[in-house]
Amino acid sequence: MSGAERDGEPDWLVWGREIQAIAQTGLTFTRDPYDRERYEMLRALAARMMAAHTATPARRIEALFVGQDGYATPKIDVRAAVFDSDGRLLMVRETLDGGRWTLPGGWADVNMTPADSAVKEVREESGYIATVRKLAALWDRTRQGHPATVFSCAKLFYLCDLAGGAPATSLETSGIGWFGADEIPDDLSLGRVLPDQIRRMFEHHRTPTLPTDFE
To answer: What keywords are annotated for this sequence in UniProt (predicted)?
Structure first.
């Protein structure tokens, strides 16, 4: 069984992602015009590979790749598991995913620590103020079983405490709710959070001395 099969992703996606990363990093450091042309060809090849297995045109995928520069590294997604004094977990409805439920979060921002980004996402998406207690988990997105995506991604989950604020939706969220461990909604935004991840956050909340999970 291949590594891609073990991770739940098809080989073509893993290979295409790796080719794109090689091309991006090569274009960043090469000074040879002929090498630059070869790396651009590799980037186009990666786009064609992905387009052949999806409904997205190759030119659109390549345009996405062109927007990436610098050494190719995983993107950083932050999620905040905010608990109130009753042990309930804060969740928001994600507008871009049909109002499905998720933990507040998003891409980490530049000039901010990942923890600060998580706190900011809580405030912007829910109206609440949170304080970070600890980094509960650092998971590779692919190994967690999320739906496949173009880019590699590391997901950071922070265990947080409620510190104030009031419920308020945003352009990104259409609803806010607090849930006990046995009340988690079925309609989760699976590209952002999985049931097992939420269950693990409750375990971290109940046992604060648990070490950080990583994979």
So the answer is: Hydrolase
CB environment 62-86: b (16+ within 10 A), e (fewer) = beebeebeeebeeeebbbbbbbeee
- Residue 29 one-letter amino acid: F
Q: pTM for the full model?
A: 0.80
Whether 118 contacts 132, CB under 8 Å: yes
* Residue 37 region by backbone torsions, left for phi larger than 0, else alpha for psi between -120 and 50, else beta: alpha
Domains of the chain: total: 2
- Residue at 2 is within a domain: no
Q: Both 161 and 109 in a single domain?
A: yes
Q: Are residues 126 and 32 both part of a single domain?
A: no
Confidence of residue 72 (pLDDT cuts 50, 70, 90): confident
Q: What's the mean pLDDT when you consider all of the chain? A: 93
User: Would residue 212 count as lying in a domain?
Assistant: no
Residue 132 — very low, low, confident or very high, per pLDDT cuts 50/70/90? very high
Structure tokens belonging to residue 67: 């927007």
Domain that includes residue 15, residue range: 9-65
DSSP state of 97: G
* Single residue among 45, 65, 85 that ends a domain in this structure: 65
The dihedral through the CA atoms of 173, 87, 201, 138 has a sign that is positive
